[in-house]
Amino acid sequence: MQAAGEELERAKLPQRLMIDCSHANAAKQYQRQAEVAADIAKQLAGGEKRIVGVMIESHWWKGARSLSRASRCALARASPDACLGWDDSVQVLDTLAQAVKQRRKHRK
After folding, report:
1. Which residues contact residue 11 at a Cβ distance below 8 angstroms, ignoring those fewer than 6 apart?
2. pLDDT 10s per residue in the chain (108 long)?
3. What pTM did the predictor assign?
4. C-alpha span between 88 and 79 (Å, rounded)
5. How far is CA 36 from CA 18, 33, 56, 68, 69, in A?
6. Are 105 and 92 in contact (CB under 8 A)?
7. What is the longest distance spanned by two Cα atoms in the chain?
8. Quick one: 58 exposed, middle or buried, by C-beta within 10 A (0-12, 13-18, 19+)?
9. Which residues, at least 6 apart from 50, have a Cβ–Cβ distance to it below 8 Å?
């Protein structure tokens, strides 16, 4: 986080970061996205202002699903990257929302 902010500053760009909770940050284990988001939430709640967004691999169903030719509804269920399911996604978003509320208290 610090290194990314410093690099943006050297480039004379706004220090605004969107963090990907998936892929390398979660060691390519979709279940670990909640841990990454919890860490981000701690930073937000502590007043970190450079974080402006997160990316989460999320879908109705957890895991990965390939496109099935047999199903007419397959497109709605296809997800090449493994994703958090609905319930886990709601919990992650709730955690982040609470952290943003805490961050807003730091502005006062």
Report:
1. none
2. 789 989 999 999 999 999 999 888 888 888 999 999 999 999 999 999 999 999 999 888 788 766 555 554 555 555 567 889 999 999 999 999 999 999 999 876
3. 0.81
4. 16
5. 13, 5, 10, 31, 35
6. no
7. 56
8. buried
9. 1, 5, 15, 16, 17
